[in-house]
C-alpha cells in the first residue's frame, strides 16, 4: 500500500519560489498502477522523489507499507556502477536492501534470468547497450523484491521494440490482486504506459488536475482528456 | 548495529573494488606524492636548513595534498549514473554511508602514505628506523582526523560547481590543528626525542579524531539529503 496525503513542496524562496507539489493526495493498493502524465516541469519527478523519501516535502506525508525496503526505483539513470559487473552491482544493492547473504546470489541469478540477462551477468556495465543497461537497472530495482515500484520516465531512450518489451515486463511485474505490486509511472508522453495503468493522473504545476480510474479508456481517449485538462500547459 | 556495519562495509568494499579496478585516482595520488617529494628535494638548500628540521613539514604537506585527491574522488564515484540517488532511496543509513566512505578513504590514503613514506626516507635520508612504529602511529592518528573531516566536506561540495576547488578551500582551515600536532610530533620523533615529550600533541590528535568522527557521523545526513 502506498498513500500520499496533502503533499506540498516548493523550490527556492521568496519571489523565485517554484511550486513543485500542491496538495497531492492518493492511495494505491496492491495491483494498482498509477500513470502520471504531465508536461515537463509539472512536478512529476519531485512527486516520485517525495514518495521515495529522497525529498522531504514542506507539508503532507507519505506512507509506504514496509518502509524504504519496500520501494524499488527506476529513474532516468541506472544507479549502476560502470566498472562493476552486472552481478557485482546486484549483489551490492542486495546487501544495502538487507537481502540475507545466502539469498543474494540466487536472487541475482533469478532476476537476471527473468529479464533474459543471465548470460550478461559477468559483463561490466560500461559494455552494455542502452537497452541492456535499462534492463540491468530494472534488475537492480527488483533485487529486493519490492512491493512498490516508482518509475520516472522509464521509456526514455528506448527504441520501439525495447519500450514494448519493457511495457510487457512491467505488466507482468505488477501482477494482480493482493499479491501484486503498486506501480507509479511518471511520463510526459501519453502514449507510453497508458495500457499498464489502472488509474490515471494528469499533473500540472504541482497539482493533480485529473485523477481517476482508467476504466477501460484507451490511449486516444486518455490523450484527449489530457489535452482538455492540461490545455495550453507550457510548464516546462 | 550489525546491519549498519554490514552496509558500511558494502559501501567501502565497493569503493575499493572500483578504485583498484580503475586505479585512476590511486595512480594520480601516488605520482603526485612522488613529484611533490622530488620538487621539495631539489627545491631546497640543504646547507641553509638542516633536513631533519624541514622534513616533517614536507612530509605532512605532501600527505595533506595527496589526501585531497582521494577525498575529491570519494563522492564523484557516486555521480556516475546518479548512483548517489540510488543510495539515498535505499534503506542505507546516512551514518552507514559515511562510515563506508570513511573506511574506503582511509585505505586509499594509507596506500598513498605507504608509498610516500619510503620515498620520503629515500629523498631526505632521515633516520626513521628507530621511530618507525610511533611514526606510523602518529600518521594513522592524524590521517583519521583529516579524512573524517574531508569525507564530510567532500559530500557537502559534490553537487556544487568547482567541487574540487571548493573542497580544498573549506577543508584546509579545519586541517590546521591535526597538521600542527602531526608536524610537531614527527619533528620530535625524527629529532630523537622521547615520545613522552609529545603527549600533549598526541592528546590533541586523539581528541580531534574523537570529536570530528562523532560530529561528522552526526552531521553527514544534512549534507546529502535534498
State the end-to-end distance of chain A: 31 Å
Low-confidence stretches of chain A: none
Mean pLDDT rating of chain B: 91
Instruction: State the order of secondary-structure elements of chain B, H for helix, E for strand.
Output: HHHHHHHH
**Quaternary assembly:** heterodimer
Name of the CATH architecture of the domain at 1-65 and 147-154 and 181-231 in chain A: 3-Layer(aba) Sandwich
User: Which stretches of chain B are low in confidence, meaning pLDDT under 50 for 5 or more residues running?
Assistant: none
Q: What percentage of residues of chain B falls in helices of 4 or more residues? A: over 70%
Can you tell me about this structure?
The complex is a heterodimer of chains A (about 240) and B (about 230). Chain A is about 30% helix and about 25% strand. Chain A has about 240 residues and is of the alpha/beta class. In chain A, the strands form 2 sheets. In chain A, strands 5-6-7-3-8-9 form a 6-stranded mixed sheet, with helices on both faces. In chain A, helix 2 (about 85-95) crosses helix 3 (about 100-115). The longest helix of chain A has 15 residues, at about 160-175. The two termini of chain A are about 30 Å apart. Chain B is mostly helical and about 230 residues long. In chain B, helix 2 packs antiparallel against helix 3 (about 50-75) and helix 3 runs parallel beside helix 6. Chain B starts with a helix and ends with a helix. Chain B has 8 helices and no strands. Helix content of chain B is about 80%, strand content about 0%. The interface between A and B is medium-sized, with 30 and 25 residues.
In short:
The complex is a heterodimer of chains A (236) and B (226). Chain A has 236 residues and is an alpha/beta fold.
Could you outline the blueprint of secondary structure elements for this entry?
The complex is a heterodimer of chains A (236) and B (226).
Chain A: E1 2-11, E2 18-28, E3 33-37, H1 44-52, E4 59-64, E5 71-74, H2 86-96, H3 101-114, H4 130-142, E6 148-152, H5 160-174, E7 182-187, E8 199-204, E9 207-213, H6 219-229
Parallel strand pairs in A: 3-7, 3-8, 5-6, 6-7
Antiparallel strand pairs in A: 1-2, 1-4, 8-9
Chain B: H1 2-22, H2 24-42, H3 51-76, H4 83-89, H5 94-124, H6 132-157, H7 163-190, H8 199-224
Helix pairs in contact in B: 1-5, 2-3, 2-5, 3-5, 3-6, 3-7, 5-6, 5-8, 6-7, 6-8, 7-8
